[in-house]
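Progress against Task 2.4 (sequence-to-structure conversion) is shown through the following example record, which the project officer requested during the mid-term review.
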Amino acid sequence: MASVQLVGVEKVYPNGHVAARGLDMEIADGEFMVLVGPSGCGKSTALRMIAGLETPTAGRVLIGERDVTALPPQERDIAMVFQSYALYPHMTVRENLSFGLRMRGAARPAIAERVEGAARALGLDTVLERKPSQLSGGQRQRVALGRAMVRDPKVFLFDEPLSNLDAKLRVETRAELARLHRRLKATIVYVTHDQEEALTLGGRVAVMRDGIVEQVAPPMEVYRRPASLFVAGFVGSPAMNLLAGDVRADGAWAGPGGLVLPLGPGPRGSGAPAGVTLGVRPHDLAIVAAGAGDADARVDVVEPRGSELLVHLRLGAGGEGGELRVVAPPDLPVAVDAAVGVQLDRDRLHWFDAATRKRLE
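Structure tokens generated for the chain above:
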């Protein structure tokens, strides 16, 4: 296996579209790095530049200590798994798994050993003589993974490999991928738009927007200490509540619907700007009796979600303020248009400079 480095990598297409802006990233040998972000953020372009399918406009790509920026894909010793399985329909599972090795002229005993080993690891040993049309979607995805595994590459690259699976299969295959990484200790660069997938799989997560990396950190750090308003709003389900407000002359923060809070020590210590956005996750709020919390609100929508309720509130006694989402216990007696209070967990508030959109702290 090997490390991967992007050094000042940029990609500008002939039409002027900038897909990557000065990407600097180091992925350690054996690390599982996830690139996550919305469609068009540049994550797949970054992966394709590592693979050699796209040529950077500027910067360098290194695999191990080797500069591979100008090398074609076949000389980079990488294996790529795409969203589409790209299996040969006329070949059996065994033939699909062994195809790359046969094209390289590997010895038959070595091919058989690697194919059998990959099939056992992925639970495909009982379907080796079947063709792709006789397999489930999850099995076809595992064959695509196995085809990459048998090559024993320096780096595995995954481009949205679970997007075609249903919800249950995605969860099962995520677990298989985690086990595979633990067993192989492989270097994996994994692209997804699904932030739940990113948080559950990645040793580290790189959150991308408009061709730049907003934050690179372990999953729980990204969740608990988002570095920017974009990361705060993108990571987490339900999404973080973001409330615009101003810092008053007495140093308190005043937001919509009469919500007034003392600024945290981080924002105070950094010299709080005039415009400050408060972030608070729906799980860090509680619905209480009207007049008993940090602010009054009215219930707008109640969504039962099995183990919990997602309650949409309108801040202010008359509901004239902004929307606030609260995750509440499933048996909480709450009715649409009811007057309630909302209590914030003061230890779990996030403050952002409204102008720079960066975290204050």
